[in-house]
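Async update (no meeting this week)

Hi team, since we skipped the sync, here's where things stand on the single-chain job. The sequence we agreed to prioritize is pasted below, unchanged from the tracker. I ran it this morning and attached the output directly underneath so nobody has to dig for it. Comments welcome in thread, and please keep replies under the output.
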Amino acid sequence: MLRFATWKIIAILALTLAAVLVVVPSMLAPASVKALENALPSWAQPRTIVLGLDLQGGSYVMLEVDKASVLHTQVTNLRDDVRRILREEKIAITGGIGAQARGVQLRIPEAADRAKVLPKFRNLAQGFGAKIGGAPPLEVRDSGDGLVQIVVTDSGVTDKVRHAVDQSIEVIRRRVDALGTREASIQREGDDRIIVQVPGLQDPEQLKTILGQTAKLEFRLVAEPGQSPSELEELDQADQSGKIAIEKQVMVQGEDLTDAQPGFDQQRGGEPVVNFRFNIRGAQKFGEVTSKNVGRLFAIVLDNKVISAPRILQPITGGSGQISGHFTVEQANNLSILLRAGALPAKLDIIEERTVGPGLGQDSIDAGKRAAYVGAGLVVVYMLITYGVFGIFANLALFVHIAFIFAGLVLLGSTLTLPGIAGIVLTIGMAVDSNVLIYERIREEQHGGRSILASLDAGFNRAFATIVDSNVTMFVAAAILYFLGSGPVRGFAVSLALGILTTIVTAVTMTRMMIAIWYHYARPTRLPI
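Output:
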C-alpha cells in the first residue's frame, strides 16, 4: 500500500496545482483580476467565485402573478375562440358575445345551431389547459332557452397561473441577464410567486423597472373619421397628452421581433430611439400593412399605452423600423431590453423588495472568515498535538481539501453564500474526522503488535469502508437539501456536497501518498502516533 507509482504522484500534485491556480484569481483584488484578464488569451480567462446576495449586497424582489390579469387574458382568448367558431359555422347571434368575470355568455336561439357549436365549445377545453384533479379547465352551460355560458373553472385558472409563472421565469432571466449581472437567482415560490435575487445590483429601481412591465408590444392603426365605435378603443398616450382612438385589430405583434437595440436618431438632433427588426413573418405583415395604409398614423402600443403614432410615409418592406417617444438614454436602453427579452405572459406585482448593502455583505464576509479561521485553526492545533507528524499530513490534506472546494465552486459557477461558508466550515471537521478514523485504526493495529507496514495497511483499508458509508449518508442529505431547498439552503448543500466528494480524495488518497513518501525516506522503527 505504500508503493505509489511516479505518475500517480505527479497526477495528484498536478491536480492540486490546478486547483490552486483556479482559486488564486478569487483571492486577488479586482484591479489585479482585470490586469490578468488583459494579459491572458480569451481561452484562458480567469474565473472568480461569485458571491451571493448576502455577501456582496444586491437587490431582492418577490413577485406575484396577478390572477386577475391571467383570468382577463383567458376570457379575452375565449371570446375570440367563440367568435371564430361562430364565423366558421356561419351562425348569427343576438346581443353579441358578453364577457363576464369568469367567462363569456351568448344567446343562440335556434336549437339546431346550438347542437352544431356546443361540441366545438366543449372541445376548446382541450387546448385551454390541463385537467387538475380531474376537473376540466372550461365548463359549458346550456340553459335550454338559448343562453349559453362558457366558464373558466378554478382548475383552469390555476393551470394558467402555473404556466404564467414558468414562462415569466424565462422572460425575467433574459431581462436580468441583459443588465450584465452575474449569477442572478430566479426561482419559483409556491404556485404564483417568483423570487429574484441579483447580487451586486444596488439600484432596485432599475430592477423594478425591468421586471414591472409586461412589455406587450403591438402595432395598430390610428382611427379615422367614420369608423364604427365598436371596432375602436381609446388608449392613453405615454407622454400624458391625453387619449387617442385606435383600432382594436392588432396588425403586427411584438412577438415577431427578433432584435431591439438602443440608438440615436440624427435627423431629430440625436434623440434616443429604439431600432427594431422583425422575423420573416413579422416583416411580411409589417410590409403589407404599411403598403396598404400609406398616409395613415400607425400607433406603437406598449402595455396598452401609445408610445408614438408616426405617419406612414412610404411602405416599409425591409423588416426593420424605429420607435421614438422622447426617450432618455436609460429609457431607450430599458425598452430595448424589454423588447429583446419578450413580453411577460401576465402582470407581476411586487409584494416584497429589499436591498442588501455592500457594507452588510462585507460584515457577513468578515464574520464568515473569522469562523473559518478559528475553526480551521483549532482543528490544525488539535491534529498537531494529538498525532504529531501525522497531524502535519492531515493538515496539509485539509488545505488541499479547501482548495478543491473553492475550485469546484469556481468551475461550476456556483454562488457562494453565507450558509455556503458554513457548509465549508462543516466539511473541514468532516475531512479531519476521516483522518482521525484512519489514524486511530493505525494506532490500534500497532498496539496489537502488528508491524509498521501491516498497521498502516490495516488502518487505511479497514477505515475506508466506514469513511465511505458516513460520507455517502451525508451526500444523500446534501442532495435532498439541494433538490427540495431553495436559495441559501441550496448554497449550503452545494458546498457540503463538494466537501464530501473532496474529503475522500484528500483524507484517503493524498494522506496515504504523503505517508508513503515519508516512510520511504524516514524508514521509522516505530510509528510516531
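Quick observations from my side:
The longest strand covers residues 257-265.
The mean pLDDT is 82.
Reply here if anything looks off.
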